[in-house]
């Protein structure tokens, strides 16, 4: 059984009750305890290392307490019903001493930890062969590469679609806006924008000039693999980590705090620069694609 994310808190216990192997898979290094980074909640609270030295060991100890306060009692109540022994450390029970890291080593390297033996499989990516559709294809062919702006399954900041579209226009670019879960919408009927539904990012991203998004693991990976610069507007959890990594790698810009059309336009202009574009292309060529195969092979080995 493979568990992932906090919602998988019961997965290890279910695996125990079924007497089957269990592994935990993280999609970002920052979610796993390490002396080299603070927990994700540190960035979510608007805190940064720029404020001065931080006690990372204490931050991870506080993180353990949060896990126990939220899940220890109900988890042990269910384990008792299943005839399983009590657990004292919910986070360790979930992660185990040997978690997997389903992230690319270039984009999101594991920094190491004396307490965890992490297997970095690489990002779990399968080839997507879905066509883009005639309307989108026609829009792509009608002019120079455009800006894609999407926020996946998270709530988009209020007014962000209008700001991105206006910022793209200020930079002389057209815009692709996906509706999907974030419920983004066009602001007018001008022909320089198109609203789309679910889309094959693997097919679309290599054809755009830049990607503005929330910093989710999947979108960041797809953008990096496509070799296009990114502007990340993080909203929660590991998205702050990916925003920082994109900026550190020189393949985009991290945009935190309150956004305006002007700073979005400046970020897009930076992303569209020859330097950013060349760096993104270079990093994209280094992104590996065999992570899903590596993980599947290891699962077969564990199950045998």
Label this structure with key terms.
Rossmann fold, about 300 residues, 2 domains, 12 helices, four-stranded parallel beta sheet, alpha/beta
Structure notes:
With 304 residues, the protein is α/β, with parallel strands linked by helices. The protein has 12 helices and 10 strands. α8 (217-226) packs across α11. The chain has 2 domains: 2-125 and 289-303, Rossmann fold (3-Layer(aba) Sandwich), CATH 3.40.50; 134-284, 3-Layer(aba) Sandwich (Rossmann fold), CATH 3.40.50.2000. Helix content is 41%, strand content 11%. The strands form 2 sheets. Strands 7-6-5-8-9-10 form a 6-stranded parallel sheet, sandwiched between helices. A 4-stranded parallel sheet has the order 1-2-3-4, with no helix packed on it. The protein is elongated and about 65 Å long.
End-to-end Cα distance, whole Å, is 13 Å
Helix-strand category: alpha/beta
pLDDT average, as an integer?
Answer: 88
**Stretches with pLDDT under 50, minimum 5 residues:** none
**What sequence of helices (H) and strands (E) makes up the elements?**
EHEHHHEEHEHEEHEHEHEHHH
In the CATH hierarchy, the third-tier topology of the largest domain is known as: Rossmann fold
Strand proportion, as a percent range, falls in 5-15%
As a whole number of angstroms, the C-alpha radius of gyration is 21 Å
Return the CATH architecture of the largest domain.
Answer: 3-Layer(aba) Sandwich
| Spatial sequence of strands, sheet with the most strands | 7-6-5-8-9-10
Shape call:
elongated
